[in-house]
Amino acid sequence: MNNPITNAVNSDALIKSALAEDITSEDVTTNAVMREAVQGEVQLICKQDGIICGLYVFSRTFELLDAATKCEFFVKEGDAVRKGQLLGKVTGDIRVLLSGERTALNYLQRMSGIATYTRKMVDLLAGSKTKLLDTRKTTPNMRIFEKYAVKVGGGCNHRYNLSDGILLKDNHIGAAGSVKRAVELAKEYAPFVRKIEVEVENLDMCREALEAGADIIMLDNMTPAQMKEAVKMIGGRAQTECSGNVTKDNIKDILDTGVDFVSSGALTHSAPILDLSLKNLRPLEG
Question: N or C: fewer beta carbons within 10 Å in the chain?
Fold first, then answer.
């Protein structure tokens, strides 16, 4: 199965680290009941409606324990899945199936949960020009997987990390002394091809960011009425982004504000997992 996660980060190294967290020396329970290699098969069952995501990471987890392990899936990445559906099966040394089960499911459930939550929010934005973005509010060492899950769910990725773009937030502005000075310093330091985004909390800051030449203005924790007024003030001279505690429960409130983007940390920090299970493990006859 090809790796759909295209990023400079080595996903294998992260998966190995997760396996090492769960197996520090041995899987004592499995080794107690399985003294030698026996080929077996276990089924991947869906226990909740949602969007499946992370099939590569799931299969790779088992392969890193034993390259001979085989995963056969009956669904594709990004498919809508239903409660009770048989999604696939894993075949290999039963000891590997038992030892890798929890780590593989942790990845698949987490990534599928994010994709499912993202799809719900994208659907709520249907018909508007506003695009949904994620944030850096990700689980440590899970960012590559969580941001990929947002894309599978139909959302878009904001900057991947601090090296990926300029975003002047409140504390950067405080350190620089003003919005104007922060933008000046960013333009002076960064290559001209870099866009400069500024987080503003009120209309006065918005005006200052616009006059300073910000490329993107993030309207942070403003009311829908304030956002609408800010978008009118900006008048297309900069792109606009709405941010601040946006969830699937309130995202409709910003639909008529006219913002270009809405970013939501909830996509990665508040999405519940999708309930999945490995069941019906059985030995295979030789």
Answer: C
Catalytic: which of 89, 137, 180, 228? Answer: 137
d(CA 91, CA 209): 58
CA distances from 214 to 14, 39, 202 (A): 36, 61, 15
Burial of 66 (0-12, 13-18, 19+ CB in 10 A): middle
For residue 193 the two structure tokens come to 């091809």
C-alpha span between 134 and 286 (Å, rounded): 49
Instruction: Compute how many other C-beta atoms are within 10 angstroms of the C-beta atom of residue 122.
Output: 19
The residue whose two tokens read 């048989």 is 86
Which phi and psi (to 5°) does residue 55 adopt? -60, -40
**137 noted as active-site residue:** yes
- How many Cα atoms occupy the beta-carbon half-sphere of 176 within 13 Å? 17
Nearest-5° Cα angle at 120, 162 to 80:
105
Residue 6: pLDDT over 80: no
CB within 8 Å of 78: residues ≥ 6 apart: 51, 52, 53, 115, 152, 153
Determine how many CB atoms are found less than 10 A away from the CB of residue 200: 23
